[in-house]
Design brief:
The complex is a heterodimer. Chain A has helices spanning 10-35, 86-97, 109-134, 150-162, 194-201, and strands at residues 40-41, 45-50, 64-74, 78-85, 138-140, 144-149, 167-177, 182-190. Chain A is an alpha+beta fold. The model of chain A has no long low-confidence stretch (mean pLDDT 87). Chain B has a single domain (4-160), classed as 60s Ribosomal Protein L30, Chain: A, CATH 3.30.1330. A five-stranded mixed sheet of chain B has the order 1-3-8-9-10, with no helix packed on it. Chain B has a five-stranded mixed sheet with strand order 2-5-4-6-7, with helices on one face. The chains are: A alpha+beta, B alpha+beta.
Chain lengths: 205, 161
């Protein structure tokens, strides 16, 4: 196998999971403060899956989702994708904009802007925590948003990995605000060359 | 209901009609159908990248236009299609996120479409129709009974190629 991600040891996988935990924990706190709701978070999953199977992690390639995408620059470049099922994104907009639950039926310019800002804040919180943990400087790009099929949105990230191998390493966390019916998936997908940098920064060779 | 055969990302399937081969949620990827109307034998290939020589060695030729297309053609001919009758249609190749400073990888959709057309030309396969570009995802399916290539989108309607 040419894929370096398939050669990761259990210790290395644990280290990546811990990185996801620290990052996502900080993001969940930030999100909770913005919308003033309790946010639950699953233990991050570190998955190494064939590229074609990644869309199944969020309900299949034709699931309608809202995706906020940020490129990560710096010492360990990669991509961040915050994916919400369409209804969840609408509920989140309701909460953010002080509308009643169920009011949002379509995303207008302001709604999209608000969701991008959420992506921005989550990514910033995540990367900040990563910095405290690894001392790697990581900077997010400005966010971009798309409302479309999950497969189409994920392909943006997957083609970059596709040049290097046939498998994707994704660090994924699910956020839940149970009462509001909001759930989202936060993905950190390091570029293949960044894995070594991240792992040695936390002292796992 | 005719049989529904699903094709994932970086994959292809060939079969004989009646039947439908479908691939969901293409973004910058391209779905390329090949079809021999006489024998109703055809296939659908879902490529991610234009050129295998610009990437690390892969165990999966269906990932690239230059290696995937000859492979699917060979399988179709092996099933009994006549190469000179085989026609192709392509769809996909969008740019999902528009960044001002779009890097090469962001424009991979356009490069995919270009590569697919070049390889088809090299293989002497006639391209009958295309629906590429834009900033939205597509689900594509080929009906092996009729050769109709259907392209579905979320809010840009549905097309028959």
């Amino acid at each position: 196998m040419s894929d370096e991600v398939l050669e990761l040891s259990a210790t290395q996988m644990d280290a990546l999971k811990e990185i996801g935990n620290v990052g996502a924990g900080n993001s969940a706190t930030a999100l909770s403060q913005i919308i003033d709701r309790k946010i639950e978070m699953n233990v991050p999953e570190v998955s190494i899956v064939p590229l074609g199977d990644v869309p199944d992690l969020v309900g299949g390639p034709d699931a309608m989702v809202v995706g906020v995408f940020l490129r990560v620059y710096g010492e360990a470049p990669g991509n961040i994708l915050f994916l919400l099922p369409k209804e969840s994104a609408f509920y989140l907009v309701d909460t953010l904009m002080g509308k009643s639950h169920g009011d949002t039926k379509n995303l207008d310019f302001m709604d999209e802007s608000a969701l991008m800002e959420i992506g921005n804040i989550l990514a910033g919180a995540y990367l900040n925590a990563l910095f405290n943990f690894t001392k790697l400087t990581l900077l997010p790009s400005i966010p971009a948003l798309a409302v479309d099929m999950a497969g189409a949105i994920l392909s943006v990230v997957l083609v970059q990995l596709g040049q290097m191998g046939d498998h994707a390493l994704v660090i994924e966390t699910e956020f839940l605000a149970e009462e509001d019916g909001i759930r989202g998936h936060f993905f950190l997908v390091p570029d293949p060359g960044s894995l070594d940098t991240i792992l040695s920064a936390v002292g796992v060779e | 209901m005719p049989e529904l055969i699903r094709v994932g990302m970086a994959d292809y399937k060939v079969s004989r009609g009646p039947g439908i081969i479908i691939s969901y949620g293409l973004g910058s990827c391209i779905g390329i159908s090949m079809y021999d109307p006489q024998t109703k034998i055809g296939g659908l290939l879902h490529i991610m990248l234009p050129d295998s020589t610009q990437s690390k060695a892969s165990e999966n030729p269906a990932k690239f236009a230059d290696t995937g297309l000859p492979l699917m053609l060979k399988d179709i001919v092996q099933l009994g299609a006549l190469q000179s009758r085989v026609v192709a249609k392509i769809a996909g190749g969008s740019q999902m996120f528009a960044f001002a400073n779009a890097t090469d990888i962001m424009r991979v959709g356009a490069r995919n479409a270009e590569a697919a057309k070049n390889i088809l030309k090299k293989l002497n396969i006639r391209l009958l129709a295309e629906d590429t570009g834009g900033t939205y995802g597509r689900t594509v399916q080929i009906d092996l009974d009729t050769g109709v290539y259907r392209v579905k989108t979320i809010d840009k309607g549905e097309k028959e190629l």
